[in-house]
Write a structure and sequence with these properties.
This protein has 415 residues and is an alpha/beta fold. The protein is 27% helix and 27% strand. Strands 4-3-2-1-12-13-9 form a seven-stranded mixed beta sheet, covered by helices on one side. A six-stranded mixed beta sheet has the order 6-5-7-8-11-10. Helix 8 (284-302) crosses helix 9.
Length: 415
Amino acid sequence: MSVIRFVHIDHLRLGAPLAGLSHCPDWLRKVAAGAVRRSVGNVIETAMASHVDFLLIAGPLTESAEDLNAAISWLSEQIEPLRSRRIPLVLWGVQPSERTSLKCLDAVLCGPHDRLDVFRNTDGSVEMQVHPAASDGNTVPPAWTDFGQYSSGCLRFYGSFADFMLESRRPEDRELVIILKPVAGAVELPASARQSHCIPRTGSIPRTGSAGGSLLLTEEMLRNRMLEISAGSPQALGPQECGAFGCRLIEADTRQQVITSQFCATDVIRYAQEKVTCNRGLNAAGLAAAIAERSRAISSAAGRTVIADWIVDGQLQTSLQQVGELVEGPLLRELRSQLDSGNSGVWPRRIQFSESSEFSTTSQGSLAIQEFLNMESLRWSMKNRSRNDDSTSAAGIVHCGIDTVTGLALLSRVA
């Protein structure tokens, strides 16, 4: 009776396009066009499958105000299964100018300075009470002692006002305070997908592990029996946002003062940066085959479309005639032809080389090419003096940094 279960998500990002998709195939472009909406649909499905007491959206519905009306119209249809199951939708951080438009969602609307109390009645039903901010915009001071109706405890939500809370009285034993910290993007995942934290009833501070980003705990917050929670967005928008995106399934036991957070992936397309290490002597075709093999393994493990930026580290080998195959454009074409993903899997966006990567090739060629290779080989040798291997061999093979490939390929075509 004292456990309250809810799904928490921050910015929905409805209407925002995905970036980093230039030169992508048509199938990926179509998946990307509906990725954000599908990810929000996954959040709603997670809430229904988990039999939660409510769904909390703690950030804006859209990135742009111009997309808000279309987003509300679409979301109103999507949450119909929640209505039929009597699962309330809670919108946090609502601005006064948005309230009229949001009424059609039949949601519990909370301003950024409001306080939301959630508690169970004696019949097991969950009740919510919004305590609005004062007319001057300041947060209404919490009524720490109004617990006559909260026999099993109360879950209280505030906005990003930790400083104000820490100056106030410590909460009662049956009160669990959550401070919402909406994040547009992803939050760091904990080592384990499921975490529990016990809020101390005394001044002693338990030694907890890393909060992993989902539950941001400090000793001061634990002493004052408060939690800061961020969930992030359901879908990444570009290659700068790598990793898994999703919502949080949270169970709060107000009587035992224990809160459990579980990450639930909702993203449809995932951006990733992957590193591949190649052995000495691998050529361009072998490198593409090695990345293709890794890509298939990632595709099976991820269970969704992955847009990958590959970082190659190692020692490659090529002839002067084939040196152009190590340039990013030809490498990507070769790799994409091997993958031929169809409608899912891994799509390679970039192939880049680490600063320590090198390639070896014969110095035979025109006078201009030999001079270029000798200079680049000397530069590479001086840069890597600490290495035990020689940068030049007696057989006429030279070693250069991989950043030489583009210039050498151009020189080979014109020399």
